[in-house]
Amino acid sequence: MIKIIKKNKLPFITFVILSIFPFFIDSYYLNNISYFMCWTFISLGLALIWGMGGVLSFGQTAFFGLAGYSFAVISINFIGVFGVGIWSVILALLITTLFGLIVGYFLFYGGIYDVFIGIVTLAITLVLETYLQQTAGPEYAIGEARLNGFNGMQGMPTIGIQDLQYGLIEGVTQYYFILILAIITLIFLYRFKNSKLGLIFLASKEDRNRVASLGHNVQKVQLIAFVIASLLAGISGILYTNWGGYITPSSMGLVAAALPVVWVAASGKKDFFSVFIGTIFLVWLSQTLAINGAQFAIIVMGLILVISTRFFPDGIILMFKNKLIEKIKWLQS
Amino acid sequence: MKKIIAIVSSFIFLIFSNAWSAETIKLGILEDETGNFAIAVVPKIHAYELAVKEINAKGGVLGKKLEIVRYDTQSDNTRFQEFARRLIDKDKVDVVFGAFSSASREAIRPIMDKAKMLYFYNNQYEGGVCDKNVFVTGAVPEQQFSTLVPWMMEKYGKNVYTIAADYNFGQISAEWVRQIVKENGGTMVGEEFIPLDVSQFSQTIQKIQKAKPDVLMTLLVGAKQASFYEQQASAGLGIPMGTSVNVGQAYEHRRFAPPALENMYVTVNYIEEVHDVITSGQYHEKSKDFMARFKAAYPNEPYVNMEAANAYNAINLYVKAVEKAGTTDKAKVIAALETGISFDGPSGVVTIDPKSHHGSHTIFLVEVGKGHKVSIPKTWENVQPYWLGQAGCNLPAKADYSQYTPSKPPKK
Amino acid sequence: MLFNIVYQFGDALAFLLLSAIGLAVIFGMMKIINLAHGEFITVGAYGTVVSGKVFNLPLPIAMAAGVIITIIFGLILEKLIIRYLYGRPLDSVVATWGISLIVSQSFLVIFGPSYEGLQTPLGNFKLGDYSYAEYRIFLILFAFLLLGLLYILFMKTSFGTLARATIEKPEIASSMGVNISNVYSTTFAIGAGLAGITGALYAPTMTIVPSIGQAFIVSAFITVVTAGASPFIGLIPAASFLSTVQTSVTFFYKATIGIIALLFSVILIIRFLPKGFSGLITKQK
């Protein structure tokens, strides 16, 4: 543990600062930061498969949406049953992981590579979106839960144990829950990166045939990473559904599918911490621009993306991080 | 340069408005100034501003001025959620107005209900929202279809074909059409549901021609699906069309080159042509007066649609209710609105139905003729939003937070 | 009845072909994942409609103007941004996404949420129960003509050989004295111009809104990807297959299921024909 901190002083300081936030800022801003952090998991999953393994997926949103919908369907059906706000989350994540396993198996054992993975995963998320959009009628219901088409599902209980009046719906509890989950995820990802599996995965990006010829089961490693990524996307999906009490098919659409790719690439896809900070920063930025910039908001957002890829090919946040570490001697390990 | 002045002055306005925010009534507004729906929404935003300006010029209400807190939701449901929370938690507004699409309304309704925030939805829609905190000033299917469909069947024949957007609004509207056609002794000769992303309609046009309907109901939504009209005209389809969405929102009859919309009938509760077409009487006077004030404030507005009238009515209905309640306390304002408050607006009196929280309307049957010339062959007065109340929604007696459809009415 | 089936199929086929044609060059050949492809089409459409309205041009000349504007637009983008992305296909996602946001929003700011549309040229004729728009038949024929010209340009002329060789092995081409930067920007401009043609052709049949190009983007990518490594050989079989699936499923069920079937068949094609339709054809040769 000490070793990890020594090696990563900047992330450590950042998380210490984040963890004392609730003592200084009011509830609106705290909830807003919780909301920004909801989106970091889907990005971290993409950074894992894309940044490390070179597998560009546009389908993270399929897992995001599937998890959100599963959570909604299960929890609405068993509303009032003890602990539904906990075990429905676990069940939803299991369903998502299983789906990730099936898709990943189809991809990696089906010999699909490179840009084709992007197109297949995009097609999967668009199929889910298109199908769910037209499920407005009463015949599209799973038990008590109506899928409700384009307008989306609502009325699910919040994560937590309602019977004990212990929900994650608002405030400080939600904030710390997401923050701790993010720290655990980041530590796990760093460990994975330095494990044997991680090294095989990293090497498979450069030349998967050579790695395979050394006797490593590349497909298995790719599949494991893909499933982890789908699980992380699922976590984002459930947190988002819980935050707004609402999930719609458009969270699996074309625009939604491109967003994680943009966040990860603009932040610096090779560094998990940069992706974590970058996602928060970009979601915050697009919200702030929408509040202040009126119709120029989207143009400014576009300019930032274009300029960052043109001048900072490794990602703008990663560049800042490296500059900072370079300037401040103490931060170096 | 004009833009810069506008931005700078709005910043100055913001600074000053914060200074006297303590003595104002804060109205939160969430509308799509940009994105897919902007075309129909911009006049709505201006109508809110006009209503507020007029009320403030008369000294406000309860001695307080009205203040607008507005965010651009960019036709994006996630933005609606983010900004609904901001209005409630940070800006601490007294009431929220807004949303164009039903999906965005449904995105913020759970947030409104959780915070017990008073919310006005000011758009025509598929109907059925029975929610203690929500009031609706737009028209609903029983107002638009039970007038339009029988009239068209009488005039053109009893075989009806529906093409509808394949999502909640289209499916529920199509359900209404089906029911009304059956009640009036007609036949549905076909029904097709089309995904929102579709912009090419050759196959649809051929299917319609095969079924040979007398009347075609086009419940199409969004810019992509609006391409149907140009394509059906160029294929020479030539069947009378009826709808509840076009003309009255995104003024397709002005934007598209004729003959794309010729032979189209639509029921609206307001459009800016009302006083040009109806040359005397109360509707002429009221619309003329409203348009004069609107154009004085926004001379470059391309079109004043029915949602603009709904937005204008909503602010006025709220203010009347606050006056009656003597406070901005939400529960008391809701109680005041439930006494059946009415407002005499751009197209006559709108009264809130206490049971369902929806407004009554004057309904104009608009015909788009040769060269897209508009006429109004018929007007129905004081059309009630009757369905929810009959189906068992009774909000003053029993709080509810659901949306119902004819095939899924309230549990009795 | 037979004509009716051919017309419906041809109409869907033309849409897929014309959606994909510019992207076949920019993504199929140059490997730029151009998420702004739809906006290139938007530029072509607005170029046509606006120049037609402002200068009161007859439609064919307005269309030509629209295409030229798109070519210039493409050249400028290439010089400013795209040329730094060659060989970085995955980074091109972010940059072109940014371009797409900037362009569509700028159109909204400049021209407002909607622009007055054009009337579809040519008339219609009746055959049995059905009537047909002549312009849509023209679109089908034009799509095939355009594709034929492109095939000749890239497969039979010396420029085509040079372009393909340069993009395949830029270092070697450069060492042989080829001005690779010029070849790249010319090829990119051709791709942009083709997208502009798509926009110009469909402008009179659709609602003119800043998001008009987004109607094409999914069709474009799935057609180019299923076409495979030699897009100009694979486009017609790929688009034929996809439009057959879509129109027949739409005919027997409904349009939503048609789109789902289309996406599913793309997944299956990639799985079982990893080199796409062009791979299938070149193998048989």
Characterize the overall form of chain B.
globular
Q: Which structural class is indicated by helix and strand composition of chain C?
A: mainly alpha
* Mean pLDDT over the full residue set of chain B: 89
Note the beta-strand portion of chain B. Answer: 15-25%
User: What level of helicity do the residues of chain C show?
Assistant: over 70%
Q: How would you describe this protein?
A:
The complex is a heterotrimer of chains A (333), B (412) and C (285). Chain A has helices at 2-7, 9-20, 27-38, 40-52, 60-77, 84-108, 114-133, 171-194, 196-206, 208-213, 218-244, 254-267, 272-292, 297-311, 316-327, and strands at residues 141-142, 145-146, 153-154, 160-161, 166-167, 246-247. By secondary structure, chain A is mainly alpha-helical. Chain A is globular, with a radius of gyration of 20 Å. Residues 11-21 of chain B have low confidence and may be disordered. In chain B, the strands form four sheets. A seven-stranded mixed β-sheet of chain B has the order 8-7-9-10-11-14-15, sandwiched between helices. Chain B contains 14 helices and 16 strands. The radius of gyration of chain B is 21 Å and the shape is globular. In chain B, 43% of the residues lie in helices and 21% in strands. In chain C, helix 2 packs parallel to helix 4. Chain B binds chain C through residues 34, 36, 38-39, 42, 166, 192-195, 197-200, 202-204, 206, 209-210, 212, 223-224, 226-227, 230-231, 233-237, 250, 255-260, 302, and chain C through 4, 7-8, 11-12, 15, 105, 108, 112-120, 122-124, 126, 129-133, 135-136, 204-207, 209, 211-212, 215, 218, 247, 250-251, 254-256, 259.
